[in-house]
Amino acid sequence: MPIFKHQDSACWHVDIVSPSGKRIRRSTGTEDKQAAKEYHDSLKAELWRVQYLDEKPERSFEEGALRWLNEKKNKRDIVDDKTILRFWREHLSMPLHEIRGGMALEIVHQLDVSNARKNKYLAVLRALLRRAERAWEWIDKAPNFTMLPEPKRRIRSLTKEQALALVDELPEHQQRMVIFALATGLRQGNVLGLTWGRIDLDRRVAYIDGDDFKNGDDHGVPLNDSAVDIVRQCIGNHPTHVFTYRGKPIKQANTKAWRNALERAGIVAFRWHDLRHAVATWLVQDGTPLFAVQEFFGWKDGKMVRRYAHLAPQHLAQYAAGLDTRLRRDSARG
Length: 334
Prior knowledge:
It comes from Chitinimonas arctica. This protein is mostly helical.
Protein backbone atom coordinates (compact mmCIF):
# COMPACT_ATOMS: atom_id res chain seq x y z
CA MET A 1 0.00 0.00 0.00
CA PRO A 2 1.65 3.31 -1.09
CA ILE A 3 0.13 5.36 1.76
CA PHE A 4 -1.03 4.06 5.11
CA LYS A 5 -1.55 4.93 8.75
CA HIS A 6 0.11 3.49 11.83
CA GLN A 7 -2.15 2.64 14.73
CA ASP A 8 -0.22 5.01 16.99
CA SER A 9 0.01 7.90 14.51
CA ALA A 10 -2.58 10.31 13.15
CA CYS A 11 -0.42 11.18 10.14
CA TRP A 12 -0.35 9.28 6.87
CA HIS A 13 2.86 7.44 5.93
CA VAL A 14 4.32 6.50 2.54
CA ASP A 15 5.80 3.18 1.47
CA ILE A 16 7.84 3.54 -1.73
CA VAL A 17 10.45 1.43 -3.49
CA SER A 18 12.87 3.75 -5.27
CA PRO A 19 14.19 3.01 -8.80
CA SER A 20 17.43 1.85 -7.16
CA GLY A 21 15.50 -0.75 -5.16
CA LYS A 22 15.71 1.03 -1.82
CA ARG A 23 12.54 0.88 0.27
CA ILE A 24 11.48 4.19 1.82
CA ARG A 25 8.92 4.36 4.60
CA ARG A 26 8.34 7.70 6.29
CA SER A 27 5.68 9.99 7.67
CA THR A 28 4.12 12.56 5.36
CA GLY A 29 3.57 14.88 8.30
CA THR A 30 -0.09 15.38 7.42
CA GLU A 31 -3.42 13.89 8.48
CA ASP A 32 -5.04 14.86 5.18
CA LYS A 33 -5.19 11.91 2.79
CA GLN A 34 -5.15 14.01 -0.38
CA ALA A 35 -2.12 15.97 0.84
CA ALA A 36 -0.44 12.66 1.70
CA LYS A 37 -1.06 11.38 -1.84
CA GLU A 38 0.47 14.54 -3.29
CA TYR A 39 3.49 14.09 -1.03
CA HIS A 40 3.79 10.47 -2.19
CA ASP A 41 3.65 11.42 -5.88
CA SER A 42 6.14 14.26 -5.42
CA LEU A 43 8.60 12.07 -3.55
CA LYS A 44 8.32 9.30 -6.14
CA ALA A 45 8.96 11.76 -8.98
CA GLU A 46 11.97 13.20 -7.15
CA LEU A 47 13.44 9.74 -6.62
CA TRP A 48 13.02 9.03 -10.34
CA ARG A 49 14.81 12.28 -11.29
CA VAL A 50 17.65 11.52 -8.89
CA GLN A 51 18.09 8.01 -10.32
CA TYR A 52 17.71 8.67 -14.04
CA LEU A 53 18.51 12.36 -14.51
CA ASP A 54 21.37 12.47 -11.97
CA GLU A 55 19.65 15.23 -10.03
CA LYS A 56 20.45 15.80 -6.37
CA PRO A 57 17.51 15.38 -4.00
CA GLU A 58 16.28 18.59 -2.44
CA ARG A 59 17.55 19.12 1.08
CA SER A 60 15.90 21.56 3.44
CA PHE A 61 17.78 24.06 5.53
CA GLU A 62 16.53 22.26 8.62
CA GLU A 63 18.16 19.02 7.44
CA GLY A 64 21.41 20.86 6.91
CA ALA A 65 21.25 22.55 10.32
CA LEU A 66 20.62 19.26 12.11
CA ARG A 67 23.49 17.54 10.32
CA TRP A 68 25.81 20.48 11.02
CA LEU A 69 25.01 20.44 14.74
CA ASN A 70 25.51 16.68 14.89
CA GLU A 71 28.87 16.76 13.13
CA LYS A 72 30.06 19.85 15.02
CA LYS A 73 28.80 18.86 18.47
CA ASN A 74 32.33 19.05 19.91
CA LYS A 75 32.95 22.52 18.51
CA ARG A 76 33.89 24.98 21.26
CA ASP A 77 31.26 27.56 20.29
CA ILE A 78 28.53 25.08 19.33
CA VAL A 79 26.07 26.85 21.66
CA ASP A 80 26.51 30.01 19.62
CA ASP A 81 26.02 28.00 16.42
CA LYS A 82 22.69 26.76 17.78
CA THR A 83 21.54 30.35 18.38
CA ILE A 84 22.61 31.40 14.88
CA LEU A 85 21.06 28.42 13.13
CA ARG A 86 17.82 28.94 15.05
CA PHE A 87 17.68 32.45 13.56
CA TRP A 88 18.32 31.18 10.02
CA ARG A 89 15.76 28.43 10.44
CA GLU A 90 13.10 31.07 11.10
CA HIS A 91 13.93 32.87 7.85
CA LEU A 92 15.05 30.16 5.42
CA SER A 93 12.12 27.83 4.90
CA MET A 94 13.47 26.63 1.56
CA PRO A 95 15.77 24.01 0.05
CA LEU A 96 19.48 24.59 0.55
CA HIS A 97 20.16 25.04 -3.16
CA GLU A 98 17.83 28.04 -3.33
CA ILE A 99 19.68 30.07 -0.66
CA ARG A 100 21.64 33.02 -2.05
CA GLY A 101 24.21 35.29 -0.47
CA GLY A 102 22.30 38.46 -1.28
CA MET A 103 19.18 37.02 0.32
CA ALA A 104 21.11 36.20 3.49
CA LEU A 105 22.59 39.70 3.57
CA GLU A 106 19.13 41.27 3.47
CA ILE A 107 17.88 38.99 6.24
CA VAL A 108 20.82 39.56 8.55
CA HIS A 109 20.24 43.32 8.46
CA GLN A 110 17.20 42.66 10.65
CA LEU A 111 19.52 41.98 13.56
CA ASP A 112 20.17 44.90 15.87
CA VAL A 113 23.82 43.98 16.44
CA SER A 114 27.23 45.10 15.22
CA ASN A 115 28.48 44.28 11.75
CA ALA A 116 31.01 41.93 13.32
CA ARG A 117 28.19 39.93 14.89
CA LYS A 118 26.17 39.96 11.66
CA ASN A 119 29.22 38.63 9.86
CA LYS A 120 29.35 35.75 12.35
CA TYR A 121 25.79 34.81 11.34
CA LEU A 122 26.76 34.99 7.67
CA ALA A 123 29.95 33.01 8.26
CA VAL A 124 28.12 30.11 9.92
CA LEU A 125 25.58 29.94 7.09
CA ARG A 126 28.35 30.15 4.49
CA ALA A 127 30.29 27.35 6.18
CA LEU A 128 27.20 25.14 6.32
CA LEU A 129 26.48 25.64 2.62
CA ARG A 130 30.10 24.98 1.66
CA ARG A 131 29.96 21.77 3.66
CA ALA A 132 26.71 20.86 1.91
CA GLU A 133 28.54 21.24 -1.42
CA ARG A 134 31.97 19.79 -0.69
CA ALA A 135 31.43 17.18 2.02
CA TRP A 136 27.78 16.14 1.85
CA GLU A 137 27.36 16.66 -1.92
CA TRP A 138 23.84 17.94 -1.33
CA ILE A 139 24.11 20.98 -3.60
CA ASP A 140 26.06 21.67 -6.79
CA LYS A 141 27.60 24.96 -5.72
CA ALA A 142 27.58 27.03 -2.54
CA PRO A 143 26.65 30.69 -3.11
CA ASN A 144 29.03 33.60 -2.70
CA PHE A 145 28.66 35.81 0.36
CA THR A 146 29.51 39.47 0.79
CA MET A 147 30.56 40.27 4.33
CA LEU A 148 29.80 43.58 5.98
CA PRO A 149 32.55 46.14 6.68
CA GLU A 150 33.92 46.09 10.19
CA PRO A 151 35.92 48.77 11.99
CA LYS A 152 39.51 47.88 12.66
CA ARG A 153 39.94 46.22 16.00
CA ARG A 154 41.38 48.54 18.55
CA ILE A 155 44.48 47.70 20.52
CA ARG A 156 44.04 49.13 24.02
CA SER A 157 47.10 48.86 26.20
CA LEU A 158 48.46 50.27 29.46
CA THR A 159 51.64 52.02 30.42
CA LYS A 160 53.61 50.61 33.34
CA GLU A 161 52.43 53.53 35.45
CA GLN A 162 48.78 52.94 34.55
CA ALA A 163 49.05 49.24 35.34
CA LEU A 164 50.55 49.90 38.76
CA ALA A 165 47.96 52.58 39.49
CA LEU A 166 45.16 50.18 38.59
CA VAL A 167 46.55 47.43 40.80
CA ASP A 168 46.84 49.84 43.73
CA GLU A 169 43.15 50.74 43.43
CA LEU A 170 41.87 47.15 43.37
CA PRO A 171 40.86 45.01 46.36
CA GLU A 172 43.40 42.32 47.25
CA HIS A 173 41.66 39.39 45.58
CA GLN A 174 41.39 41.29 42.29
CA GLN A 175 44.93 42.58 42.55
CA ARG A 176 46.12 39.00 42.45
CA MET A 177 44.08 38.17 39.37
CA VAL A 178 45.18 41.27 37.46
CA ILE A 179 48.87 40.81 38.26
CA PHE A 180 48.63 37.15 37.24
CA ALA A 181 46.86 38.10 34.00
CA LEU A 182 49.54 40.71 33.21
CA ALA A 183 52.26 38.17 33.99
CA THR A 184 50.83 35.40 31.79
CA GLY A 185 48.62 37.01 29.14
CA LEU A 186 45.82 34.55 29.91
CA ARG A 187 42.19 35.30 29.18
CA GLN A 188 39.74 36.11 31.94
CA GLY A 189 38.07 32.69 31.75
CA ASN A 190 41.42 30.89 32.01
CA VAL A 191 42.44 32.95 35.03
CA LEU A 192 39.15 32.55 36.88
CA GLY A 193 38.96 28.85 36.06
CA LEU A 194 42.55 28.06 36.98
CA THR A 195 42.76 25.04 39.29
CA TRP A 196 45.63 23.65 41.32
CA GLY A 197 45.82 20.59 39.13
CA ARG A 198 46.93 22.83 36.26
CA ILE A 199 49.79 24.46 38.17
CA ASP A 200 53.31 23.01 38.28
CA LEU A 201 55.42 25.24 40.50
CA ASP A 202 58.50 23.05 40.13
CA ARG A 203 58.51 23.56 36.38
CA ARG A 204 56.93 27.03 36.72
CA VAL A 205 54.19 26.32 34.19
CA ALA A 206 50.40 26.66 34.09
CA TYR A 207 48.62 24.21 31.81
CA ILE A 208 45.38 25.09 30.02
CA ASP A 209 43.32 22.21 28.63
CA GLY A 210 42.28 22.45 25.00
CA ASP A 211 38.61 22.38 26.05
CA ASP A 212 39.20 25.64 27.92
CA PHE A 213 41.49 27.30 25.37
CA LYS A 214 40.11 29.28 22.47
CA ASN A 215 41.99 27.50 19.68
CA GLY A 216 41.10 24.08 21.09
CA ASP A 217 44.72 22.97 21.72
CA ASP A 218 46.36 22.27 25.06
CA HIS A 219 48.54 25.21 26.03
CA GLY A 220 51.35 25.72 28.51
CA VAL A 221 52.15 29.16 29.92
CA PRO A 222 55.48 29.92 31.63
CA LEU A 223 55.15 31.39 35.11
CA ASN A 224 57.58 34.22 35.75
CA ASP A 225 58.50 35.44 39.23
CA SER A 226 55.44 37.71 39.48
CA ALA A 227 53.08 34.87 38.56
CA VAL A 228 54.76 32.40 40.93
CA ASP A 229 54.54 34.91 43.81
CA ILE A 230 50.80 35.32 43.20
CA VAL A 231 50.21 31.56 43.07
CA ARG A 232 52.10 31.06 46.34
CA GLN A 233 49.97 33.74 48.00
CA CYS A 234 46.86 31.74 47.07
CA ILE A 235 48.03 28.37 48.42
CA GLY A 236 45.65 27.01 51.04
CA ASN A 237 42.75 29.33 50.22
CA HIS A 238 40.70 26.72 48.35
CA PRO A 239 41.01 22.99 47.61
CA THR A 240 40.52 23.27 43.84
CA HIS A 241 40.63 26.86 42.55
CA VAL A 242 43.55 29.28 42.68
CA PHE A 243 41.62 32.57 42.70
CA THR A 244 38.88 32.91 45.30
CA TYR A 245 36.96 35.47 47.32
CA ARG A 246 35.56 34.72 50.75
CA GLY A 247 36.29 31.04 50.32
CA LYS A 248 34.58 30.58 46.96
CA PRO A 249 35.90 30.54 43.38
CA ILE A 250 35.56 33.90 41.64
CA LYS A 251 33.01 33.76 38.82
CA GLN A 252 33.16 37.33 37.48
CA ALA A 253 35.99 39.84 37.08
CA ASN A 254 34.08 42.72 35.48
CA THR A 255 32.61 43.90 38.78
CA LYS A 256 31.76 47.26 40.30
CA ALA A 257 35.04 47.15 42.21
CA TRP A 258 36.91 46.70 38.90
CA ARG A 259 35.09 49.59 37.24
CA ASN A 260 35.57 51.87 40.24
CA ALA A 261 39.28 51.06 40.30
CA LEU A 262 39.59 52.01 36.63
CA GLU A 263 37.87 55.30 37.30
CA ARG A 264 40.06 56.14 40.29
CA ALA A 265 43.19 55.24 38.28
CA GLY A 266 42.04 57.54 35.47
CA ILE A 267 41.83 54.76 32.90
CA VAL A 268 38.96 55.02 30.41
CA ALA A 269 37.51 52.69 27.75
CA PHE A 270 39.35 49.69 29.14
CA ARG A 271 38.03 46.12 29.43
CA TRP A 272 39.38 43.19 31.41
CA HIS A 273 40.27 41.50 28.11
CA ASP A 274 42.47 44.49 27.29
CA LEU A 275 44.92 43.24 29.91
CA ARG A 276 45.80 40.60 27.32
CA HIS A 277 46.39 43.30 24.71
CA ALA A 278 48.66 45.09 27.18
CA VAL A 279 50.79 41.97 27.64
CA ALA A 280 51.16 41.47 23.88
CA THR A 281 52.07 45.14 23.45
CA TRP A 282 54.69 45.01 26.19
CA LEU A 283 56.28 41.85 24.78
CA VAL A 284 56.55 43.33 21.29
CA GLN A 285 57.83 46.68 22.54
CA ASP A 286 60.50 44.86 24.56
CA GLY A 287 61.80 43.25 21.38
CA THR A 288 60.32 39.76 21.75
CA PRO A 289 60.38 38.07 18.31
CA LEU A 290 56.92 37.90 16.78
CA PHE A 291 57.06 34.10 16.44
CA ALA A 292 57.72 33.87 20.20
CA VAL A 293 54.80 36.18 20.97
CA GLN A 294 52.57 34.01 18.78
CA GLU A 295 53.65 30.87 20.63
CA PHE A 296 53.33 32.57 24.03
CA PHE A 297 49.67 33.37 23.36
CA GLY A 298 48.90 30.13 21.55
CA TRP A 299 47.73 31.85 18.38
CA LYS A 300 47.39 29.50 15.41
CA ASP A 301 47.01 32.34 12.93
CA GLY A 302 49.96 34.64 12.38
CA LYS A 303 47.68 37.56 11.57
CA MET A 304 46.90 37.92 15.29
CA VAL A 305 50.48 38.73 16.20
CA ARG A 306 50.89 40.97 13.15
CA ARG A 307 48.34 43.32 14.73
CA TYR A 308 51.12 44.28 17.16
CA ALA A 309 54.07 44.32 14.75
CA HIS A 310 53.83 48.06 14.12
CA LEU A 311 54.53 48.71 17.79
CA ALA A 312 58.16 47.61 17.45
CA PRO A 313 59.50 48.45 13.98
CA GLN A 314 63.05 48.13 15.35
CA HIS A 315 63.04 44.45 14.38
CA LEU A 316 63.27 45.70 10.78
CA ALA A 317 66.36 47.81 11.54
CA GLN A 318 68.81 45.25 10.13
CA TYR A 319 66.97 45.29 6.81
CA ALA A 320 66.95 49.08 6.74
CA ALA A 321 70.69 48.96 7.38
CA GLY A 322 71.08 46.84 4.26
CA LEU A 323 69.43 49.56 2.19
CA ASP A 324 71.71 52.11 3.82
CA THR A 325 74.76 50.10 2.75
CA ARG A 326 73.50 49.89 -0.81
CA LEU A 327 72.94 53.63 -0.94
CA ARG A 328 76.47 54.34 0.30
CA ARG A 329 77.93 52.07 -2.38
CA ASP A 330 75.88 53.76 -5.07
CA SER A 331 77.03 57.16 -3.83
CA ALA A 332 80.66 56.04 -3.90
CA ARG A 333 80.33 55.04 -7.54
CA GLY A 334 78.97 58.46 -8.39
